């Protein structure tokens, strides 16, 4: 299966290269400018999942620790002061069109109008230097994680994104957040009295205007279970090949309905502990605590398998094929009769990316707990597929 994946991806890259060579013809510069700009714009209209970790600047963190130990109220810092630093991770977060020519660069900077100073890190979190992240709030999703103290990270970031870094003063429109992000920010509203009024306004307006919210559940175990050997308290033996695998690649395309034959697999989906509707409840309670009485945001449950427990972050098709081959080898060695009786020709092909479920329609789903995992029947809700094409 890994070999088949490599062949497919190699063919895909050849097709891409041929298309690229064909599109960059000698006649392109002579096209009318309006047409060239349409071509650049079409190339830019790709959705991305941008991972941003927001930390307090060292001097701010030191101040907060001192205040916390002294058990005094946190200082009210002027709204104009940036108290955070943005850490950006992911493969391909810098758009290639920035280095094509002047016209392409100008069009890219216009389209990706938010220019956020940041520190770039690689897939293993090694710092790669400082720079600027360019993105478009209407097209891109921000996978946001923040550390304590949240008024200096999460809230300060949202405020400055809206009032300083977005020339249209819109800010965040599409958010992806996991359980850790919800838990941290769920605790903070009790300290809202320490917030500057300008920050309160920015945060409330941002949470009210959100277009889409992805509540992320990213288990590291459960795509393949080998009875007690998996160490999660279940005797289940299964290989859910259809469960999408996460990667470090930022760009993705959305397919309204996963076209694969995943119906049987959806009957037993293992997720991280916490019911699939718990996150929605916490998100709605969070909005209430911040004073948001009405929200237009469409909330969806994002499910993806995190392979990093047994493999380095996946950044290209070579990494992807290696991970699938490792899974297959383990399945053959330890899957027993389940592996022996499997018809690989009928197996659901694996993909890299994520599932999106309509979480607001999933109230009342019951889950069976197995320590760090929960098993849920999701067959009543066929998911959308966020497909990542590995380079």
TrEMBL record:
Q: Which InterPro entries match?
A: 2EXR (IPR045518)
In terms of domain of life, where is this protein from? Eukaryota
Under what name is this protein listed? 2EXR domain-containing protein
Instruction: Report domain 2EXR positions.
Output: 28-142
């Amino acid at each position: 299966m890994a070999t088949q994946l490599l062949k497919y991806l190699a063919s895909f890259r050849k097709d891409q290269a041929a298309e690229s060579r064909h599109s960059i013809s000698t006649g392109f510069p002579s096209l009318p400018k309006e047409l060239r700009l349409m071509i650049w714009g079409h190339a830019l209209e790709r959705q991305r999942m941008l991972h941003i970790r927001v930390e307090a600047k060292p001097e701010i963190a030191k101040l907060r620790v001192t205040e916390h130990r002294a058990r005094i109220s946190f200082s009210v810092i002027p709204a104009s002061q940036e108290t955070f630093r943005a850490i950006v991770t992911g493969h391909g977060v810098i758009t290639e069109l920035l280095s094509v020519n002047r016209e392409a660069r100008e069009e890219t900077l216009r389209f990706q109008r938010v220019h956020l100073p940041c520190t770039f890190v690689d897939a293993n979190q090694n710092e790669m230097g400082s720079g600027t992240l360019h993105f478009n709030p209407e097209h891109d999703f921000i996978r946001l994680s923040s550390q304590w103290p949240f008024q200096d990270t999460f809230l300060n970031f949202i405020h400055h994104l809206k009032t300083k870094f977005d020339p249209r003063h819109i800010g965040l429109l599409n958010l992806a957040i996991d359980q850790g992000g919800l838990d941290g920010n769920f605790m903070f509203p009790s300290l809202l009295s320490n917030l500057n009024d300008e920050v309160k306004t920015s945060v409330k307006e941002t949470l009210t205007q959100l277009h889409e919210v992805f509540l992320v559940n990213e288990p590291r175990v459960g795509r393949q279970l080998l009875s007690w050997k998996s160490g999660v308290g279940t005797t289940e033996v299964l290989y859910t090949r259809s469960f999408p695998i996460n990667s470090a690649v930022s760009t993705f395309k959305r397919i309204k309905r996963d076209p694969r034959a995943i119906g049987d697999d959806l009957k037993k989906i293992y997720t991280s502990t916490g019911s699939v509707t718990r996150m929605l409840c916490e998100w709605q309670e969070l909005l209430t605590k911040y004073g948001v009485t009405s929200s237009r945001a469409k909330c969806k449950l994002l499910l993806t398998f995190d392979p990093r427990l047994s493999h380095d972050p996946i950044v290209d098709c070579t990494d992807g094929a290696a991970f699938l081959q490792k899974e297959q080898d383990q399945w053959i060695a330890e899957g027993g009769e389940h592996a022996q009786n499997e018809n690989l020709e009928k197996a659901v092909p694996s993909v890299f990316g994520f599932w999106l479920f309509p979480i607001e329609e999933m109230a009342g789903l019951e889950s069976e707990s197995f320590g760090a995992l929960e098993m849920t029947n999701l067959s009543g809700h066929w998911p959308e597929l966020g497909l990542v094409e590995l380079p």
